[in-house]
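Appendix B. Chain record.
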Amino acid sequence: MTMTADDVLRMIQERGIRMVDFKFTDVPGTWQHFSTPARNLDAELFAEGIGFDGSSVRGFQQINESDMLLVPDPSTAILDPFTTEPTLSLVCDVTQPGSRRDPYTRDPRYIARKAEDYLAKSGIADTAYFGPEAEFFVFDDVKYRSSQNEQWAVVDSDEAHWNSGRNGDGNGSAFNLGHRMRPKEGYFPVAPNDTLQDLRTAMVLMMEDCGIHVEAQHHEVAAGGQCEIDMRFDSLLSMADKVMLYKYIVKNVARRAGKTVTFMPKPIYGDNGSGMHVHMSLWQGGTPLFADEEGYAGISEMARFFIGGLLTHAPAVLALAAPTTNSYRRLVPGYEAPVNLVFSQRNRSAAVRIPMYSDHAKAKRVEFRPPDPTCNPYLTFSALLMAGLDGIRREIAPEAHGFGPIDRNIYEMCAEEKREIKSVPGSLDDALSALELDHEFLLQGDVFTSDLLEKYVEMKREQSAEVRLRPSPQEFALYYDA
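C-alpha coordinates predicted for this chain:
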Protein backbone atom coordinates (compact mmCIF):
# COMPACT_ATOMS: atom_id res chain seq x y z
CA MET A 1 0.00 0.00 0.00
CA THR A 2 1.32 3.46 -0.91
CA MET A 3 2.08 5.61 2.10
CA THR A 4 0.29 8.95 2.50
CA ALA A 5 1.36 11.98 4.52
CA ASP A 6 -1.01 10.92 7.30
CA ASP A 7 0.52 7.44 7.29
CA VAL A 8 4.00 8.93 7.65
CA LEU A 9 2.98 11.16 10.56
CA ARG A 10 1.34 8.18 12.27
CA MET A 11 4.49 6.11 11.69
CA ILE A 12 6.59 8.77 13.43
CA GLN A 13 4.41 8.60 16.52
CA GLU A 14 4.08 4.82 16.65
CA ARG A 15 7.78 4.06 16.16
CA GLY A 16 9.22 6.83 18.28
CA ILE A 17 11.11 8.39 15.37
CA ARG A 18 13.39 11.23 16.51
CA MET A 19 14.71 12.64 13.22
CA VAL A 20 13.55 13.08 9.62
CA ASP A 21 16.04 12.98 6.75
CA PHE A 22 15.24 14.69 3.44
CA LYS A 23 17.04 13.18 0.43
CA PHE A 24 17.17 14.47 -3.14
CA THR A 25 19.28 13.88 -6.24
CA ASP A 26 21.64 16.35 -7.91
CA VAL A 27 22.15 16.51 -11.67
CA PRO A 28 25.10 14.07 -11.81
CA GLY A 29 23.03 11.52 -9.87
CA THR A 30 24.24 11.61 -6.25
CA TRP A 31 21.97 11.70 -3.21
CA GLN A 32 22.14 14.85 -1.09
CA HIS A 33 20.43 15.25 2.29
CA PHE A 34 19.78 17.19 5.45
CA SER A 35 17.82 16.35 8.59
CA THR A 36 15.43 17.96 11.07
CA PRO A 37 13.87 16.86 14.37
CA ALA A 38 10.73 14.84 13.72
CA ARG A 39 8.51 17.39 15.51
CA ASN A 40 9.07 19.76 12.55
CA LEU A 41 7.38 17.42 10.08
CA ASP A 42 3.66 18.08 9.73
CA ALA A 43 0.97 17.94 7.06
CA GLU A 44 1.75 21.50 5.96
CA LEU A 45 5.40 20.67 5.21
CA PHE A 46 4.28 17.89 2.85
CA ALA A 47 2.33 20.53 0.91
CA GLU A 48 4.54 23.60 1.27
CA GLY A 49 8.01 22.04 1.34
CA ILE A 50 11.14 22.91 3.29
CA GLY A 51 13.77 25.40 2.12
CA PHE A 52 17.38 24.77 1.14
CA ASP A 53 20.24 26.47 -0.72
CA GLY A 54 20.12 25.34 -4.34
CA SER A 55 23.29 27.20 -5.32
CA SER A 56 25.41 24.72 -3.33
CA VAL A 57 24.10 21.68 -5.25
CA ARG A 58 25.86 20.46 -8.40
CA GLY A 59 23.98 21.48 -11.52
CA PHE A 60 21.32 23.53 -9.73
CA GLN A 61 20.96 27.29 -9.22
CA GLN A 62 23.18 30.36 -9.37
CA ILE A 63 23.90 32.12 -6.08
CA ASN A 64 21.52 34.97 -6.93
CA GLU A 65 18.59 32.52 -7.20
CA SER A 66 19.56 30.02 -4.52
CA ASP A 67 16.34 29.69 -2.49
CA MET A 68 14.56 26.44 -3.33
CA LEU A 69 12.17 23.96 -1.72
CA LEU A 70 12.11 20.22 -1.11
CA VAL A 71 8.69 18.57 -1.11
CA PRO A 72 8.77 15.11 0.54
CA ASP A 73 7.18 12.18 -1.28
CA PRO A 74 5.41 10.13 1.44
CA SER A 75 5.42 7.00 -0.72
CA THR A 76 9.23 6.81 -0.31
CA ALA A 77 9.20 6.76 3.51
CA ILE A 78 11.46 4.18 5.17
CA LEU A 79 13.42 3.94 8.40
CA ASP A 80 17.02 4.77 7.55
CA PRO A 81 18.91 1.55 8.37
CA PHE A 82 22.24 3.27 9.07
CA THR A 83 21.44 5.92 11.70
CA THR A 84 21.94 5.46 15.44
CA GLU A 85 18.78 7.36 16.35
CA PRO A 86 15.47 6.29 14.72
CA THR A 87 15.39 8.38 11.54
CA LEU A 88 12.70 8.56 8.88
CA SER A 89 14.07 8.87 5.34
CA LEU A 90 12.02 10.69 2.70
CA VAL A 91 12.94 11.20 -0.96
CA CYS A 92 11.94 14.67 -2.13
CA ASP A 93 10.98 16.55 -5.25
CA VAL A 94 12.59 19.94 -5.87
CA THR A 95 10.38 22.97 -6.48
CA GLN A 96 10.72 26.71 -6.94
CA PRO A 97 9.60 29.07 -4.15
CA GLY A 98 6.56 31.28 -4.67
CA SER A 99 2.82 30.83 -4.69
CA ARG A 100 2.84 28.44 -7.69
CA ARG A 101 5.43 25.98 -6.30
CA ASP A 102 6.55 25.12 -9.84
CA PRO A 103 8.59 21.93 -10.20
CA TYR A 104 12.28 22.63 -10.82
CA THR A 105 13.20 21.82 -14.41
CA ARG A 106 16.64 20.45 -13.46
CA ASP A 107 15.27 18.10 -10.80
CA PRO A 108 16.05 14.59 -12.13
CA ARG A 109 12.97 13.16 -10.40
CA TYR A 110 10.74 15.68 -12.19
CA ILE A 111 12.18 14.61 -15.53
CA ALA A 112 11.36 10.98 -14.72
CA ARG A 113 7.79 11.98 -13.82
CA LYS A 114 7.44 13.84 -17.11
CA ALA A 115 8.76 10.84 -19.05
CA GLU A 116 6.10 8.62 -17.48
CA ASP A 117 3.42 11.22 -18.26
CA TYR A 118 4.64 11.51 -21.84
CA LEU A 119 4.36 7.75 -22.28
CA ALA A 120 0.80 7.69 -20.93
CA LYS A 121 -0.27 10.57 -23.19
CA SER A 122 1.36 9.00 -26.25
CA GLY A 123 -1.26 6.25 -26.41
CA ILE A 124 1.52 3.72 -27.10
CA ALA A 125 1.54 2.23 -23.60
CA ASP A 126 0.67 3.19 -20.05
CA THR A 127 3.67 1.69 -18.23
CA ALA A 128 7.36 1.25 -18.92
CA TYR A 129 9.14 -1.31 -16.75
CA PHE A 130 12.86 -1.11 -16.06
CA GLY A 131 15.15 -3.75 -14.59
CA PRO A 132 18.75 -2.53 -14.14
CA GLU A 133 21.62 -4.86 -13.24
CA ALA A 134 24.06 -2.66 -11.34
CA GLU A 135 27.52 -4.16 -10.82
CA PHE A 136 30.09 -2.92 -8.31
CA PHE A 137 33.49 -3.70 -6.80
CA VAL A 138 34.12 -4.45 -3.13
CA PHE A 139 37.65 -3.53 -2.07
CA ASP A 140 39.52 -4.01 1.19
CA ASP A 141 41.65 -0.93 0.63
CA VAL A 142 41.74 2.03 -1.73
CA LYS A 143 44.23 4.88 -1.96
CA TYR A 144 44.51 7.61 -4.59
CA ARG A 145 45.94 11.07 -5.09
CA SER A 146 45.80 13.66 -7.82
CA SER A 147 47.89 16.74 -7.21
CA GLN A 148 50.35 18.88 -9.13
CA ASN A 149 53.16 16.36 -8.79
CA GLU A 150 51.34 13.09 -8.02
CA GLN A 151 48.93 10.96 -10.06
CA TRP A 152 48.32 7.47 -8.68
CA ALA A 153 45.73 5.03 -7.37
CA VAL A 154 45.95 1.68 -5.58
CA VAL A 155 43.06 -0.71 -4.90
CA ASP A 156 43.21 -4.07 -3.16
CA SER A 157 40.96 -7.08 -2.68
CA ASP A 158 42.00 -10.01 -0.50
CA GLU A 159 40.45 -12.49 -2.93
CA ALA A 160 42.25 -11.11 -6.00
CA HIS A 161 44.92 -13.07 -7.86
CA TRP A 162 47.59 -10.44 -7.29
CA ASN A 163 47.61 -11.39 -3.58
CA SER A 164 48.61 -15.02 -4.22
CA GLY A 165 52.20 -14.22 -3.20
CA ARG A 166 51.44 -12.01 -0.24
CA ASN A 167 52.62 -12.90 3.26
CA GLY A 168 49.67 -13.72 5.52
CA ASP A 169 45.98 -13.48 4.73
CA GLY A 170 45.42 -9.93 5.91
CA ASN A 171 43.50 -11.07 8.96
CA GLY A 172 46.35 -11.54 11.40
CA SER A 173 47.37 -14.99 10.19
CA ALA A 174 50.97 -15.75 9.29
CA PHE A 175 49.77 -17.99 6.47
CA ASN A 176 48.50 -17.30 2.96
CA LEU A 177 45.68 -19.77 2.36
CA GLY A 178 45.97 -19.56 -1.40
CA HIS A 179 42.35 -19.48 -2.63
CA ARG A 180 42.42 -16.60 -5.09
CA MET A 181 40.52 -15.91 -8.31
CA ARG A 182 42.31 -15.75 -11.63
CA PRO A 183 41.52 -12.78 -13.94
CA LYS A 184 38.08 -13.04 -15.57
CA GLU A 185 37.21 -16.18 -13.56
CA GLY A 186 35.08 -14.52 -10.90
CA TYR A 187 31.71 -15.57 -12.31
CA PHE A 188 29.87 -17.87 -9.90
CA PRO A 189 32.76 -19.48 -7.93
CA VAL A 190 31.85 -20.87 -4.52
CA ALA A 191 33.65 -20.30 -1.22
CA PRO A 192 36.45 -20.17 -0.27
CA ASN A 193 37.29 -18.33 -3.53
CA ASP A 194 34.14 -16.20 -3.22
CA THR A 195 34.73 -14.39 0.06
CA LEU A 196 31.81 -11.96 -0.27
CA GLN A 197 28.73 -14.22 -0.04
CA ASP A 198 27.81 -13.16 3.49
CA LEU A 199 28.40 -9.48 2.73
CA ARG A 200 26.14 -9.61 -0.34
CA THR A 201 23.50 -11.46 1.69
CA ALA A 202 23.59 -8.71 4.32
CA MET A 203 23.06 -6.18 1.53
CA VAL A 204 20.17 -8.18 0.05
CA LEU A 205 18.37 -8.61 3.37
CA MET A 206 18.65 -4.92 4.14
CA MET A 207 17.29 -4.09 0.67
CA GLU A 208 14.35 -6.42 1.27
CA ASP A 209 13.70 -4.74 4.64
CA CYS A 210 13.65 -1.38 2.84
CA GLY A 211 11.12 -2.50 0.21
CA ILE A 212 13.42 -3.53 -2.65
CA HIS A 213 12.49 -6.92 -4.15
CA VAL A 214 15.75 -8.73 -4.93
CA GLU A 215 15.89 -11.58 -7.43
CA ALA A 216 19.49 -12.80 -7.07
CA GLN A 217 23.00 -11.98 -5.87
CA HIS A 218 26.33 -13.37 -7.05
CA HIS A 219 30.00 -12.72 -7.66
CA GLU A 220 30.77 -11.19 -11.05
CA VAL A 221 33.44 -11.90 -13.65
CA ALA A 222 36.26 -9.63 -12.44
CA ALA A 223 38.50 -11.38 -9.94
CA GLY A 224 39.04 -8.46 -7.54
CA GLY A 225 35.76 -8.32 -5.66
CA GLN A 226 33.22 -7.62 -8.42
CA CYS A 227 29.60 -8.31 -7.43
CA GLU A 228 26.05 -7.99 -8.69
CA ILE A 229 22.68 -7.84 -6.95
CA ASP A 230 19.64 -7.93 -9.22
CA MET A 231 16.41 -6.12 -8.36
CA ARG A 232 12.99 -7.08 -9.65
CA PHE A 233 11.75 -4.74 -12.39
CA ASP A 234 9.53 -1.77 -11.60
CA SER A 235 8.10 1.34 -13.27
CA LEU A 236 10.48 4.11 -14.32
CA LEU A 237 10.32 6.55 -11.38
CA SER A 238 10.02 3.86 -8.75
CA MET A 239 12.96 1.94 -10.22
CA ALA A 240 15.14 5.05 -10.31
CA ASP A 241 14.32 5.68 -6.63
CA LYS A 242 15.32 2.08 -5.90
CA VAL A 243 18.65 2.42 -7.71
CA MET A 244 19.53 5.35 -5.46
CA LEU A 245 18.55 3.37 -2.35
CA TYR A 246 20.41 0.29 -3.69
CA LYS A 247 23.66 2.22 -3.98
CA TYR A 248 23.18 3.77 -0.53
CA ILE A 249 22.65 0.35 1.06
CA VAL A 250 25.50 -1.38 -0.77
CA LYS A 251 28.04 1.30 0.15
CA ASN A 252 27.02 1.53 3.79
CA VAL A 253 26.73 -2.20 4.47
CA ALA A 254 30.25 -2.57 3.07
CA ARG A 255 31.46 0.31 5.23
CA ARG A 256 30.05 -1.36 8.34
CA ALA A 257 32.00 -4.50 7.43
CA GLY A 258 35.25 -2.56 7.07
CA LYS A 259 35.19 -2.69 3.27
CA THR A 260 34.57 -0.12 0.55
CA VAL A 261 32.41 -0.22 -2.59
CA THR A 262 32.81 1.63 -5.86
CA PHE A 263 30.42 1.79 -8.80
CA MET A 264 33.01 3.29 -11.14
CA PRO A 265 33.03 1.19 -14.32
CA LYS A 266 36.74 0.39 -14.68
CA PRO A 267 38.77 0.55 -11.46
CA ILE A 268 40.97 -2.45 -12.43
CA TYR A 269 43.12 -2.79 -15.54
CA GLY A 270 42.95 -6.05 -17.51
CA ASP A 271 39.70 -7.43 -16.11
CA ASN A 272 35.98 -6.87 -16.66
CA GLY A 273 34.42 -3.54 -15.78
CA SER A 274 31.12 -2.82 -14.08
CA GLY A 275 28.06 -2.12 -16.21
CA MET A 276 24.40 -1.57 -15.55
CA HIS A 277 22.51 -3.51 -18.20
CA VAL A 278 18.98 -2.13 -18.37
CA HIS A 279 16.01 -4.39 -19.22
CA MET A 280 12.93 -2.62 -20.58
CA SER A 281 9.39 -3.45 -21.66
CA LEU A 282 6.18 -1.57 -22.41
CA TRP A 283 2.75 -2.58 -21.12
CA GLN A 284 -0.83 -1.43 -21.69
CA GLY A 285 -3.63 -2.25 -19.26
CA GLY A 286 -1.60 -5.06 -17.72
CA THR A 287 -0.78 -6.60 -21.12
CA PRO A 288 2.85 -6.87 -22.31
CA LEU A 289 3.42 -5.22 -25.69
CA PHE A 290 6.86 -6.57 -26.60
CA ALA A 291 5.84 -10.20 -27.20
CA ASP A 292 4.99 -11.88 -30.51
CA GLU A 293 5.73 -15.58 -30.78
CA GLU A 294 5.97 -15.27 -34.57
CA GLY A 295 8.57 -12.49 -34.47
CA TYR A 296 12.36 -12.67 -34.31
CA ALA A 297 13.34 -13.89 -30.83
CA GLY A 298 9.65 -13.80 -29.93
CA ILE A 299 9.41 -10.01 -29.91
CA SER A 300 6.81 -7.76 -31.49
CA GLU A 301 7.14 -5.17 -34.20
CA MET A 302 6.75 -2.51 -31.51
CA ALA A 303 9.73 -3.95 -29.65
CA ARG A 304 11.79 -3.92 -32.86
CA PHE A 305 10.94 -0.27 -33.47
CA PHE A 306 11.83 0.47 -29.83
CA ILE A 307 15.21 -1.18 -30.47
CA GLY A 308 15.61 0.88 -33.62
CA GLY A 309 15.17 4.04 -31.60
CA LEU A 310 17.62 2.89 -28.93
CA LEU A 311 20.34 2.09 -31.44
CA THR A 312 19.76 5.20 -33.54
CA HIS A 313 20.10 7.50 -30.54
CA ALA A 314 22.59 5.37 -28.56
CA PRO A 315 25.60 7.71 -29.03
CA ALA A 316 23.62 10.62 -27.58
CA VAL A 317 21.99 8.53 -24.84
CA LEU A 318 25.40 7.34 -23.67
CA ALA A 319 26.32 10.87 -22.67
CA LEU A 320 23.74 10.29 -19.91
CA ALA A 321 23.97 6.51 -19.50
CA ALA A 322 27.80 6.18 -19.53
CA PRO A 323 28.57 9.61 -18.11
CA THR A 324 32.20 9.51 -16.97
CA THR A 325 35.59 9.44 -18.63
CA ASN A 326 36.10 6.11 -16.83
CA SER A 327 32.98 4.72 -18.57
CA TYR A 328 34.95 4.57 -21.82
CA ARG A 329 37.74 2.53 -20.21
CA ARG A 330 35.04 -0.17 -20.04
CA LEU A 331 33.44 0.39 -23.45
CA VAL A 332 36.27 -1.07 -25.52
CA PRO A 333 36.32 -4.33 -27.52
CA GLY A 334 36.76 -7.47 -25.43
CA TYR A 335 35.81 -8.09 -21.78
CA GLU A 336 32.20 -8.68 -22.94
CA ALA A 337 31.98 -4.92 -23.51
CA PRO A 338 28.80 -4.10 -25.48
CA VAL A 339 30.33 -1.66 -27.95
CA ASN A 340 28.56 -2.89 -31.10
CA LEU A 341 25.41 -1.00 -32.10
CA VAL A 342 23.42 -4.03 -33.17
CA PHE A 343 20.72 -6.21 -31.64
CA SER A 344 20.66 -9.94 -31.13
CA GLN A 345 19.05 -12.74 -29.18
CA ARG A 346 21.27 -14.04 -26.37
CA ASN A 347 24.43 -12.41 -27.79
CA ARG A 348 26.27 -10.39 -25.12
CA SER A 349 28.60 -8.73 -27.61
CA ALA A 350 25.64 -6.70 -28.95
CA ALA A 351 24.49 -3.38 -27.48
CA VAL A 352 20.90 -4.65 -27.41
CA ARG A 353 20.21 -8.22 -26.36
CA ILE A 354 16.88 -10.03 -26.25
CA PRO A 355 16.98 -12.45 -23.31
CA MET A 356 15.71 -15.92 -24.20
CA TYR A 357 15.34 -17.48 -20.74
CA SER A 358 11.56 -17.74 -21.15
CA ASP A 359 9.00 -17.80 -23.96
CA HIS A 360 6.33 -16.30 -21.71
CA ALA A 361 4.93 -13.03 -23.06
CA LYS A 362 5.46 -11.29 -19.72
CA ALA A 363 9.17 -12.10 -19.85
CA LYS A 364 9.75 -10.53 -23.28
CA ARG A 365 11.94 -7.47 -22.97
CA VAL A 366 14.95 -5.74 -24.51
CA GLU A 367 18.23 -5.30 -22.69
CA PHE A 368 20.39 -2.24 -23.38
CA ARG A 369 23.90 -3.16 -22.24
CA PRO A 370 26.20 -0.10 -22.55
CA PRO A 371 25.06 1.90 -19.45
CA ASP A 372 27.00 1.80 -16.21
CA PRO A 373 26.02 2.53 -12.60
CA THR A 374 27.73 5.93 -12.37
CA CYS A 375 24.78 7.35 -14.31
CA ASN A 376 21.87 9.32 -12.92
CA PRO A 377 19.09 6.67 -13.14
CA TYR A 378 16.29 9.24 -13.48
CA LEU A 379 17.94 10.83 -16.52
CA THR A 380 19.15 7.56 -18.02
CA PHE A 381 15.84 5.67 -17.78
CA SER A 382 13.99 8.71 -19.14
CA ALA A 383 16.41 9.05 -22.07
CA LEU A 384 16.16 5.34 -22.89
CA LEU A 385 12.37 5.54 -22.88
CA MET A 386 12.37 8.65 -25.08
CA ALA A 387 14.76 7.03 -27.57
CA GLY A 388 12.62 3.90 -27.76
CA LEU A 389 9.39 5.86 -28.14
CA ASP A 390 10.95 7.90 -30.94
CA GLY A 391 11.75 4.63 -32.68
CA ILE A 392 8.13 3.50 -32.32
CA ARG A 393 6.74 6.85 -33.44
CA ARG A 394 9.01 6.96 -36.52
CA GLU A 395 8.85 3.19 -37.13
CA ILE A 396 12.64 2.82 -37.16
CA ALA A 397 13.20 -0.78 -38.20
CA PRO A 398 16.67 -1.74 -36.96
CA GLU A 399 17.19 -4.17 -39.85
CA ALA A 400 16.86 -1.30 -42.33
CA HIS A 401 19.60 0.75 -40.66
CA GLY A 402 22.38 -1.80 -40.35
CA PHE A 403 21.62 -2.72 -36.74
CA GLY A 404 21.35 -6.46 -37.25
CA PRO A 405 20.17 -8.84 -36.01
CA ILE A 406 23.60 -10.45 -35.59
CA ASP A 407 23.66 -13.74 -33.74
CA ARG A 408 27.34 -14.55 -34.28
CA ASN A 409 30.20 -13.70 -31.92
CA ILE A 410 31.13 -10.29 -33.26
CA TYR A 411 34.61 -10.44 -31.76
CA GLU A 412 35.38 -13.46 -33.98
CA MET A 413 34.33 -11.73 -37.21
CA CYS A 414 36.93 -10.68 -39.75
CA ALA A 415 38.03 -7.04 -39.95
CA GLU A 416 35.98 -6.39 -43.10
CA GLU A 417 32.79 -7.64 -41.44
CA LYS A 418 33.44 -5.59 -38.30
CA ARG A 419 33.84 -2.40 -40.34
CA GLU A 420 30.18 -2.67 -41.30
CA ILE A 421 29.10 -2.50 -37.64
CA LYS A 422 28.67 0.86 -35.93
CA SER A 423 30.18 1.32 -32.48
CA VAL A 424 29.45 3.33 -29.37
CA PRO A 425 31.40 6.59 -28.87
CA GLY A 426 35.03 6.12 -27.90
CA SER A 427 35.13 8.81 -25.23
CA LEU A 428 32.94 10.97 -23.04
CA ASP A 429 33.68 13.97 -25.26
CA ASP A 430 32.46 12.05 -28.31
CA ALA A 431 29.25 11.10 -26.48
CA LEU A 432 28.67 14.70 -25.39
CA SER A 433 29.15 15.87 -28.98
CA ALA A 434 26.60 13.28 -30.09
CA LEU A 435 24.14 14.59 -27.49
CA GLU A 436 24.64 18.16 -28.70
CA LEU A 437 23.85 17.06 -32.28
CA ASP A 438 21.02 14.65 -31.44
CA HIS A 439 18.68 15.66 -28.61
CA GLU A 440 15.37 16.65 -30.22
CA PHE A 441 13.91 13.28 -29.24
CA LEU A 442 14.58 14.15 -25.59
CA LEU A 443 12.74 17.48 -25.85
CA GLN A 444 9.48 15.88 -26.99
CA GLY A 445 6.67 16.57 -24.53
CA ASP A 446 9.02 18.92 -22.65
CA VAL A 447 10.43 15.88 -20.83
CA PHE A 448 13.99 17.17 -20.99
CA THR A 449 14.71 20.86 -21.40
CA SER A 450 17.48 22.58 -23.35
CA ASP A 451 18.49 24.32 -20.14
CA LEU A 452 19.15 21.02 -18.34
CA LEU A 453 21.00 19.46 -21.28
CA GLU A 454 23.21 22.52 -21.74
CA LYS A 455 24.11 22.54 -18.04
CA TYR A 456 24.75 18.81 -18.08
CA VAL A 457 27.09 19.02 -21.09
CA GLU A 458 28.93 21.96 -19.50
CA MET A 459 29.52 20.00 -16.27
CA LYS A 460 30.68 16.87 -18.08
CA ARG A 461 33.01 18.82 -20.40
CA GLU A 462 34.66 20.25 -17.29
CA GLN A 463 35.17 16.76 -15.86
CA SER A 464 36.63 15.52 -19.13
CA ALA A 465 39.07 18.45 -19.23
CA GLU A 466 40.21 17.69 -15.68
CA VAL A 467 41.18 14.17 -16.74
CA ARG A 468 42.65 15.21 -20.08
CA LEU A 469 44.96 17.82 -18.56
CA ARG A 470 46.62 15.46 -16.08
CA PRO A 471 49.49 13.13 -16.99
CA SER A 472 48.80 9.47 -16.21
CA PRO A 473 51.28 7.00 -14.68
CA GLN A 474 51.20 4.98 -17.89
CA GLU A 475 52.45 8.00 -19.81
CA PHE A 476 55.51 8.04 -17.58
CA ALA A 477 56.04 4.35 -18.31
CA LEU A 478 55.83 4.97 -22.04
CA TYR A 479 57.50 8.34 -22.52
CA TYR A 480 59.71 9.32 -19.58
CA ASP A 481 62.91 8.16 -21.25
CA ALA A 482 61.95 9.33 -24.75
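Further analysis of this model is presented in Appendix C.
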